[in-house]
Amino acid sequence: MRIESTNVYVGPNLFARFPVIRHIIDLGELEHWPTTRLGDAFIEPLLEALPGLHEHGCSYKEPGGFVRRMREDEGTWLGHVMEHVAIELQVVAGSDVTFGRTRSIDGQPGYYNMVFQYKDATVGREAGKLALALIGSLLPDELKFDGAPGDDWSFKEERDHFIRFAQRREFGPSTASLVKAAEARDIPWLRLNQYSLVQFGHGRYQQRIQATTTGRTSNIAVELAGDKEETNEILRDLGLPVPKQMLVRNAPDAVRAAERIGYPVVLKPLSGNHGRGVAINLRTPEEVEVGFQKAAEHGRTIVVESYIEGFDHRLLVIDGKLVAAAKRVPGHVVGDGKHTIEELVNIVNEDPRRGVGHEKVLTRLEFDHQAERLLAKLGYDRSTVPAKDEVVYLRSTANLSTGGTAIDVTDIIHPDNREMAIRSIKAIGLDIGGVDFLTRDISESYRDAGGGICEVNAGPGFRMHVAPSEGTPRDVAGPVIDMLFPAGTPSRIPIAAVTGTNGKTTTSRMLAHILKMSGKTVGLTSTDGVYIDGKLSVSGDMTGPVSAQMILRDPSVDAAVMETARGGMLRSGLGFQECNVTACLNVSADHLGLRGIDTIEQLAEVKRIPVEIAKDAVVLNADDPLCLQMADHTDAGRISYVTMNPAHPLVKRHIRAGGQAFVLEQGMNGHMITIYDNETHTPLVWTHLIPATIEG
Fold first, then answer.
1. Where does 250-297 show beta strands of DSSP type E?
2. Is there a contact between 58 and 75 (Cβ–Cβ < 8 Å)?
3. What's the CA gap between 242 and 285, in Å, rounded?
4. Burial of 152 (0-12, 13-18, 19+ CB in 10 A)
5. Which residue from 465, 511, 513, 312 is spatially nearest to 396, judged by alpha carbons?
6. pTM for the complete prediction?
7. What pLDDT digit, counting tens, does each position of 49-81 carry?
8. Which of 70, 391, 414, 576 has the smallest number of Cβ neighbours within 10 A?
């Protein structure tokens, strides 16, 4: 059993209207070994390795359907099993994928088209490889194929390695929430790198984000927010509540600053984030010296500031409005009178919501110097068994990235505190900002309860608001998308796709020229290159998804014409999820024999892909029966037929039914196009074209 070839489809394709991976699988000798013949010796370990397979419905469309397929009648073949395993591995790693399909290839016994959905192409390919390895590891020795794992192979270890790999590739919670909000508003998006740089919208309408920093975020504001001294001074000058603060660069100066400010104090790096190097509630010179050494690991200049009693709150402001507030609690365990602190940490870390860093909505608790110091203050160590309901803190700061939890308090925040947060973010100049505010009670005004702003954050994390540990989740991504794309603002440029066997390039260039003459900056993909506003940008055959995405990423383009050839569609699918209009010129036998397309009917099915995703209109050659049949496979708002036959019976019926048609007639002085009106059913426009115009 082996993977013969692989195709990664980035958009609509022959198998689905979304990204999928296609493996051609050669089962070899295993073609004679369906799951019922392999028996429970294969099926049971497979289900033990991936219990989620019990939920796969398969063709039965209900949980347990796939397991039923493996056990009933003649069973199913291992290509189909591999499809389900590849899907489940991605689900285990956090990808929401469900689609798969495996079909035998006619005339090639033992060969199968195995197709499955993916969210990240690299993760999907790794899932396919691990699925093949798992199947190989479960086969009896006499059926093991070349490359199958040996007895020392551990699926559990490989699975965990795959999950960590996948999570590194996944969007973080903040970026993922923004992408989801864009999809809910039908705004297209493109991932621009392997991390969190994302483009929303196409062409001239695009907006970019990186995590929660937008293309509109002021660089000066980001610099100010990163400079704790400058932030403190700006806010203090506006009468906003901030702690006393001094900057130092060595431990003795830190001690002197603490004595001038007055104990207790807080030490933190001047340019730091995620609570790294922060030490709070320091009450002695010795504690200050230790705190300085830890802070100095994250920056040369250290802030010493007065310690404010109270709970840590993150107040999120977007586009001048407070949209969410969360009370943050430092990482901790709660005693039960039975388990040690180390055992309690392990129990807390079993929560499936906890992961490494920002990969999940909560972060795993870890023992480090800060945890050991806090335990030592209590006279505890890892082996201590806390009393029932005793809260033992392992962190002095409440950052989620160090294991903290969040409680939503948006509904109870006092109006004065709300206004204070909005003023603070405006003062720094951020479009999206987080205010870290310490107070004993967020429902009381800071003027009465006291409190202070300890930090202003550019690019604040959203996960504490999107998925709080307690309280109501908040849609904080929606206001960002609404800020970038106010109601009525376009996000898509018009896209025209031109397909067929012959004449695509000429038609595409003519259409691009017409659009350019109407004042548009046109992006054109064709078999001789990519053109931007009539100028060649990249030469060569550029009719696939890579060239399409060049056009959609270009911020100068406000209309796109995509010549769409069968090679790119068969190799990688389309580079756009939908288009406004598609024209299919013809389908002929010129291009058969590529990638399993051996009949003209199969070729027509490929050419039909852009027709199926057209939203507004489809233009079809009514004199080509294969083009004509494509009308049954589109949801476009309008179908327009083009014919050389004024008496074409179907075209005449189409016009009488309210449709549109173009009739091209050849006369002595050239060609005449008649456009038939879809209301009066009478000729509306006569346009004479001399032969030279057609050729040009």
1. 265-269, 279-282
2. no
3. 23
4. exposed
5. 312
6. 0.85
7. 999 999 999 988 899 999 999 998 889 999 999
8. 391
